[in-house]
Specification:
It is a single chain. This protein is of the alpha+beta class and 176 residues long. It has one domain. It contains seven helices and five strands. Strands 1-2-3-5-4 form a five-stranded mixed β-barrel. A hairpin with a 4-residue loop joins strand 2 and strand 3. Helix 1 crosses helix 3 and helix 2 (22-30) packs antiparallel against helix 3 (37-61). The radius of gyration is 18 Å and the shape is elongated. The model has no long low-confidence stretch (mean pLDDT 83).
Length: 176
Amino acid sequence: MPTVSRAQVAVVGWVLFLSSFAPLLVVFGLLDSFGSAAASDVCYALAGLSAVVLFAGLETWRRLGTTEVVVCRVRPRDTDVIAYVATYIVPFAALGANNWHERAALIGFFLLVGVLYVRAELFYVNPLLAVAGFKLFELETDSGRVLLALTKRRYISTGQPLHLHTLTDFVFLEAA
């Protein structure tokens, strides 16, 4: 399987991470969490922009070369999305952010979660992808490699060959 550059991992990571918070940004805008119409508009704009960049990224990534793997073991990982959404709880505790200290703390929280998720390469967990019909599977290939695959399939059987686009060294997108 081809290796990917750190730059590609970073770009894929930040696109997936930022878009994963798009639903929460919309909620913040609706609830006027930052205390002004302009701040709500920024939340909407960031949510929309991150969703557009995500789906443009998916189209770009589908043009990457593919690698064929044969599946020896499969484990669904869709529950990871539910655990990720739990990170939304902390910002909800700050819904009454009425001064710049509380707002700065909320922004700092987003940045910290972003750095942790991108460095730990957990960015493959994305509620927008789940809403768009993608499922997440952990696969072990016939060569013994363990990887994560984003796919629109509901089921993957062992022995089945898959054609995958390399997003990072262990996160792949099934070729359509």
